[in-house]
Design a protein that fits this description.
Elements: H1 2-24, H2 29-50, H3 54-80, H4 101-116
Helix pairs in contact: 1-2, 2-3, 3-4
């Protein structure tokens, strides 16, 4: 289920970023580039979570951690400096445009990875 949600977010973030960058990049380049970065993180997390082995586990942990830090950083910046974000990014306002799932998803991912880690 977790991999499926990540796959949906990978598709959504990639689609959103592609349309934004292709059609109106000049309006909010920072927000749109951050959406593209989020898409890459979601794609990487999806593949890593779907694979087995220590290497993929480590990549999944790194992807989820980067995602969580990104959501917190972009969410905070988008509130403190709204002028820098004239349009929303995936992680703007802590993922408000996506029902705050981007804020909760990496926490769930990290908890799941912790639970499935081999000693």
């Amino acid at each position: 289920m977790l991999v499926a949600v990540y796959a949906i977010f990978a598709l959504a973030a990639t689609s959103r970023a592609a349309v934004q960058i292709a059609t109106k990049f000049h309006e909010a380049p920072l927000a749109y580039l951050l959406s593209a970065f989020a898409a890459v993180v979601y794609i990487l997390a999806t593949f890593a979570l779907a694979r087995s082995g220590l290497r993929w586990w480590r990549i999944a942990v790194a992807a989820c951690a980067v995602e969580f830090i990104g959501v917190l950083a972009v969410g905070t910046l988008s509130i403190l400096d709204a002028a820098a974000f004239p349009d929303e990014a995936v992680w703007s306002d802590y993922g408000r445009g996506y029902l705050f799932i981007p804020l909760v998803l990496p926490v769930l991912g990290l908890l799941w990875l912790r639970r499935t880690a081999r000693n």
